[in-house]
Amino acid sequence: MPSMDIVSKPDLHEVKNALDQAEKELKNRFDFKGTDPAIEEVEDGYKLSCTTEEKVKGVADVLEDKFVKRKLSVTFLERKDPVPSGARFTMRVLLKKSLDTENAKKIVAMIKENKQFKVSSSIHNDKKTGDSKVRVESKNIDELQAVQQFLRGQDLPVSLSFENYQR
Known about the structure:
Oligomer: single chain
CATH superfamily of the largest domain: YajQ-like, domain 2
Number of strands: 9
Low-confidence stretches: none
């Protein structure tokens, strides 16, 4: 029976390239001279810092701009509010590396609500990593492609990718 998995994974190589380009641009931009902007990789994303709240938001804008230029969705990034930290401001930007259970449930509900699809969908959770994926199965591969087109046309808070096609 044909099947596919719906996931939300950024290309980590492109993410690294976007980060490198953002750091390089921050060193060379005139409007950041003397503000000592920094992007530090942490376990769940990035820690941005600068001398003012406005400038730390500007650092986040540069990072998002580099994501767009590398054809990465900005939905992989989740900004937190800037926080004063001594004489500097810091901001956490989380990097979403997987599909969360809440959005997986929304996707399954959207597929089931659309009665034209003759597919079955289910959520599979990886207990080790906490990642979720939606498995969609059908008797016909054309149905899987129709589901794919339908989901691409929806306004979802996550960026979707489709993998593990099996005929």
